[in-house]
């Protein structure tokens, strides 16, 4: 796989540059690698939860479908959060909000300092 570009000078680098990502995906596609073979096998069924009667094939398939659907939903939620974080990373919204918080903190410190002077004077 490709490695991310190192920072040169004062330029900010993108953690996942599109060109590198597309190149990596193209390499994976061309490599004839079965990615499913790299995944760990499914969780073993616990004997404590198993009943004495064998489950019907429809019930087992339904449970697998539910597990797959839950996994897909978690993956989609993670993707949404990652995209939102990357969008936020490349905007100045965080810096602006941080500057606003610092400004408010300085004002509040001045107010507290002023209140401390008033109580000492009386």
Record keyword descriptors for this entry.
single chain, 122 residues, mainly alpha, 3 helices, 61% helix
What does this 3D model show about the protein?
Residues 38-58 have a biased composition (Low complexity). Residues 38-72, 95-122 are annotated as: Disordered. Residues 46-54 have low confidence and may be disordered. It is elongated and about 80 Å long. The chain is 61% helix and 0% strand. It is mainly α.
Condensed summary:
61% of the residues lie in helices and 0% in strands.
Give the ordered list of helices and strands.
HHH
How many helical stretches?
A: 3
Count the beta strands: 0
Low-confidence stretches: 46-54
What is the percentage of strand-forming residues?
Answer: under 5%
Mean pLDDT: 76
What helical percentage do the residues reach? Answer: 55-70%
Label the structural class: mainly alpha
Tell the overall outline.
elongated
Straight-line N-to-C gap = 71 Å
Radius of gyration of CA atoms, rounded to a whole number: 27 Å
Biggest sheet descriptor = none
């Amino acid at each position: 796989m490709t490695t991310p570009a190192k920072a040169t000078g004062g330029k900010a680098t993108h953690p996942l540059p599109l060109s590198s990502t597309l190149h990596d995906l193209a390499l994976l596609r061309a490599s004839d690698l079965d990615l499913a073979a790299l995944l760990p096998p499914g969780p073993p069924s616990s004997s404590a939860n198993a009943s004495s009667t064998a489950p019907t094939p429809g019930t087992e398939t339904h449970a697998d479908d539910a597990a797959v659907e839950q996994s897909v939903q978690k993956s989609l939620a993670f993707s949404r959060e990652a995209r939102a974080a990357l969008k936020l990373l490349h905007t100045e919204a965080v810096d602006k909000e941080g500057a606003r918080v610092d400004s408010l903190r300085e004002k509040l410190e001045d107010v507290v300092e002023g209140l401390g002077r008033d109580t000492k004077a009386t």
